[in-house]
Amino acid sequence: MAATGNTKQATLKIDDKSVELPIYSGSVGPDVIDISKLYGQTGMFTYDPGFTSTASCESKITYIDGDAGVLLYRGYPIEQLAQGDFLETCYLLLYGELPTATQKKDFDDRITKHTMVHEQMARFFQGFRRDAHPMAVMVASVGALAAFYHDSTDISDPKQRMIASMRMIAKVPTLAAMAYKYSIGQPFVYPKNSLDYASNFLRMCFAVPCEEYEVNPVLAKALDRIFILHADHEQNASTSTVRGAGSSGANPFACIAAGIACLWGPAHGGANEAALQMLAEIGTVDRIPEFIKAVKDKSSKIRLMGFGHRVYKNYDPRAKLMQQTCHEVLAATGHQNDPLLKVAVELEKIALSDEYFISRKLYPNVDFYSGITLKAIGFPTSMFTVLFAVARTVGWISQWSEMIQEPNYKISRPRQLYLGSEKRDYIPVDKRG
Ligand code: ACO
Is the entire prediction scored with pTM above 0.90? Predict the structure, then answer.
């Protein structure tokens, strides 16, 4: 345990027995009570489904203060990092410090040189049905990288771990673009190493061999910022999945594939699609009061999608940057009069002044504006979660790498509150009533 301080103790009383539990302080944020010896001392487990009060690990990567609306990567506020570029954020998350100019150039070169995937991967894609969801293709193809790159699956070797990390940051966008092209029946577009990360991705998604493709710099900048905003988010469901898979010693490609599978769910990566759908269903500004009324009626089960967050009980700092990015993209693509934007702006204004949302601390989250933005860039909704996966790959791999370097890391193995049958005897089928 590397956490600072261990001067405080918590006392847990069970009947007339007292158990002393050490309390550790992090560099910022809430203290934690160490219950790792609880079972040995009391024969009891703790119970916390959904991990609402449980810290699953130590980490030095990302810090969230949900009440204050703060998000820090390696100590740097997200608003400040959004002024740089995505690969700078990748370097920071992976290595812990911002790169010097020389380190940055070297890192950019190394990522750029790994963007191509093995040519046999194109044949692997042919096995999918034409209408395969791009996330299904992502789960399979990222996992399949382990079959192509045996030389970077020895997790005990730091050099191989770093090569695997670079390969994933570089190749996941290529696979994501291939998944998109495959789903629309267009030929794959090879990466172009002279382009920056986001421009290259846009080109791989939207260029066709029969025409020149010019990257719109506003859209490339916006996408780069969207990648920064989604790069890491502490011990969320998919990151915990990556750590859980990695705790058994599984190879990094398989672990990231597990993270992508978890991200696919609508409660995690799929919320921006739901927010966009909601805006379309509302349709016009005059229908907002009726919609808000339905949201407040508990029997309706309707939620204001893109609002509320398990951790943020204040404005999600990423939502502000996303709102600004949304306006820039809509202006650059001539969609500034998009009726969905009008609905979003008005909906946000009304919700932020409504007692229902204020008293429950419900604020816009990053998904409120990201669906409209991605749609305006040209992505279909089936690609929204894929883009999230492209951005989050660096967070997953940084968290995985941190875990592997932890000297005493253990396999992730929670216990349970068993509510099934007690021991009973087997009866052969012909004797059962
Ligand atoms: N619209 C209306 N009411 C809401 C909303 C919402 N979006 N979110 C929460 N509430 C209400 C609940 O009904 C509840 O009210 P009550 O106290 O009267 O019963 C109260 O606020 C607390 O809600 P919980 O569900 O307990 O809050 P929790 O922290 O578990 O949920 C969640 C967080 C799942 C994100 C929720 O706010 C939600 O469903 N939001 C909409 C979906 C969404 O935008 N998800 C994206 C999350 S960000 C991300 O994954 C990148």
Answer: yes
**What tens digit of pLDDT does each residue of 74-107 get?**
999 999 999 999 999 999 999 999 999 999 999 9
Q: Of 37, 114, 6, which Cα lies nearest the Cα of 393? A: 114
Find the residues whose C-beta lies inside 6 A of ligand 1.
268, 271, 295, 303-310, 360, 362, 365-367
DSSP 100: P
Report CA 257 to chain centroid distance, whole Å. Answer: 13
Distance (Å, whole) CA 271 – CA 281: 15
CA distance 86 to 75: 16
Domains annotated for the chain, with CATH where assigned, are 4-55 (2.20.28.60), 96-267 (1.10.580.10), 271-377 (1.10.230.10)
Q: How many contiguous H segments (helices) and E segments (strands) does the chain have?
A: 18, 6
Q: Residue 223: is it exposed, middle or buried by C-beta count within 10 angstroms (0-12/13-18/19+)?
A: buried
Q: Of all atoms in ligand 1, which is nearest to the CA of residue 303? A: 1
Using one digit for the tens of pLDDT, what is the confidence trace for 367-409?
889 988 999 999 999 999 999 999 999 999 999 999 999 988 8
Rounded to a whole number of angstroms, the distance between the first and last alpha carbons of the chain is 56
CA distance 206 to 265: 26
Strand duo 62-65 + 4-14: pairing = unpaired
The residues assigned a catalytic role are 309, 367
Query: What b/e readout covers 167-201, taking b as 16+ CB neighbours within 10 angstroms?
Result: bbbbbbbbbbbbbbbbbeeeebbbbeeebbbbbbb
